[in-house]
């Protein structure tokens, strides 16, 4: 990407001037960044649990998968609510295309995580093959959502705390 051309583009410069600091933070620490670790970890844990079930055929892993997939879904919803408030309420976040790319990937992730949990809460928990396949898909989308979320922080400086001393 030609960054010189971007900095000369009046529309991009105008967006860059807008405040992109976090609206929901605890003592200056954005709550969304604190909550996203739970769905990310639990999505990958569910994939690991499914592989262990495939390998061992031990029903214990089916029960663990119900909890890890449910945790991934509900913590994803919680992180998504905070992220959506940030997205809609902060002009410097709302007007960046990258924020919407992240939001779309994250909403896909939450939908797939919900499906993964839904497959398991019924009596006839469908782990092999459907649960495992959905876990693989959820892991891929988590990578995409997390990558775009990270770009918001590291490339766009969204939600960063800059002390007056800096
Ligand atoms: C569904 C709606 C979501 C929206 C609208 C959203 C929006 C945002 C926004 C605005 C940021 C910038 C930081 C901030 O303002 O706090 C961000 C960062 C981030 N988001 Fe989301 N998010 C959503 C869900 C998720 C989910 C489910 C995940 C889990 C994969 C996630 C992963 C991340 C990551 C990893 C960052 C970077 C945080 C850091 O490195 O400190 N987001 N998101």
Overall average pLDDT: 91
User: Could you give a short account of the major beta sheet?
Assistant: 2 strands, antiparallel
User: What form results from the Cα inertia axes?
Assistant: elongated
* Ligand catalogue: protoporphyrin IX containing FE
Secondary-structure element series? HHEEHHHHHH
Number of domains: 1
Number of strand elements: 2
The strands making up the biggest β-sheet line up spatially as: 1-2
Please identify the structural class as seen in this structure.
Answer: mainly alpha
How many helices in DSSP terms? Answer: 8
Measured distance between first and last alpha carbons = 28 Å
Contiguous runs where pLDDT drops below 50 for at least 5 residues: none
Q: C-alpha Rg, in Å?
A: 19 Å
Q: Residue share in helices?
A: over 70%
| Relative strand content | under 5%
